[in-house]
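User: I'm new to structure prediction. If I give you an amino acid sequence, what do you actually give back? Let's try with this one:
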Amino acid sequence: MVKKQPHPIDLHVGRRVKMRRMLIGMSQEKLGNQLGLTFQQVQKYEKGANRIGASRLWDISRILEVPVRFFFEGLRPETGPPAEGFAEEAQPDYVLDFVQSSEGVQLIKAFVQIKDDNVRRGIVNLAKTLAKDR
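Assistant: Good question. You get back a string of structure tokens that encode the predicted 3D arrangement of the chain. For your 134 residues, that looks like this:
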């Protein structure tokens, strides 16, 4: 029997749920409790294994304090409906992978707390230098 693969849009929406949840420091258990679900169900949503229904997505957007459209931002034309007008280019996969990782979230939170522009530029330059050494 062939295992069914999640639809790319379900994967994208699940990743966006996870990213937002992690950025605000909410656990899967807490999100699940607020939705009346187990953390395992939240895990399945985040992995795209289970589709998120419209009413559930509405509840998630309210709990995570983002508009519903947030979960669809960054969809690639080959995955979803074609972008029109002045749509932004899709982000490379490594950007989404980074902001969804624990280290990425920690780095983003710390970086945005730095108020001195010179220090922020210095950190960016340091990161570029370290990346070149690899």
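You can read the tokens as a compact description of the fold. Here is one thing that stands out. Helices lie at 8-23, 28-35, 39-47, 54-64, 93-100, 102-112, 117-132.
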